[in-house]
Amino acid sequence: MKKVSEPTIGRLSLYLRLLLDLSDAGVSTVSSEDLATRSGTTAAQVRKDLSLFGTFGKRGLGYSVNELVTRLRSILGLERRWSVALVGAGRIGAALFGYENFRRQGFYIEAVFDSDPAKVGQSWSGLVVESDDRMEAVLSERSIEIAVVAVPVRAAQAVVDRLVASGVRGILNFAPTQLEVPEDVVVKTVDMALEMEGLSYALTRLNGASGAA
Amino acid sequence: MKKVSEPTIGRLSLYLRLLLDLSDAGVSTVSSEDLATRSGTTAAQVRKDLSLFGTFGKRGLGYSVNELVTRLRSILGLERRWSVALVGAGRIGAALFGYENFRRQGFYIEAVFDSDPAKVGQSWSGLVVESDDRMEAVLSERSIEIAVVAVPVRAAQAVVDRLVASGVRGILNFAPTQLEVPEDVVVKTVDMALEMEGLSYALTRLNGASGAA
Description:
By secondary structure, chain A is an alpha/beta fold.
């Protein structure tokens, strides 16, 4: 199979979200034009993205919403349940713990760790916050595959090294730093300030400032 | 000036972050190779990204860290202070309010709104949470240009319409929904579940599952 770019995967996730909404609304077929409008892209882009994974839809009839949902869930690895650990029970950790769309898509936070004795032992919706001393034992007991890292920058690499050594293969990182991991581990860093800078760049251009050399 | 892609802008932000770290560490020059290694890309990509904005660096001598910081801050619209409003004082709002890198890059949250009477009037680091009834008045008084939207999906479009009508031109959206805005308004949606699906996709591939049709 061809290598698929990150923006393509992002669009597939977005199509899936839109299709789930259509399915909830009782809609059974959708055209590439309609999907394109809803996702802010072109019909040609939609067809190209979906064609990467085989033949979908019937010419002139559009796509079956339910069939496309099933195929996209398969492509994105969402046909199964993923066991997730949250490392860092601070403000960002708390916000992520309550994020409903994780569960909706099959990502279940089944362990929470913190190094602060005041937080260890707290019950978060029935899940006990564990001391990070217990990380290796708990990750293994609960067969955790993905970790969300919401610790300060200075602690992030050490935490990630321990996660990787315990068999975690996917990391969603909220510490604004580059992490080093082996090739068979996938890291995605979410950096809110970086998104904000995309806004300031665009606004500066829109306002007609030149900025270019 | 050429149109610059979102991934390029993301890399420029990342280079700036790495350069600020180098500057803090007292480093005065950096090569495109070094910058590439630190940012997980190639030296050719670094040179290509920077060349979009004019001539930087001297062949064989690398880039002056401080000069590059100045130029990147100018390109990204970070030479100034941005006044930001936060709409939604829930868990995600609270996490974003405490996010230090916003201030470090010049984004100052100067208004917080919520519709919940229990939250209105609370003091967040000295800033009073305002009722969303007061949104138009406060946005105007405080010359807000960027808003962070952290409200439930069902409320998001109505909030955004009011923000846009009050002159807000940039929106960082945390509600997992597509928002409609006029052409001169920039929206960036941060969707944590979407990032998570990028992980499950990659892990499913790594594990050798086919998934393709």
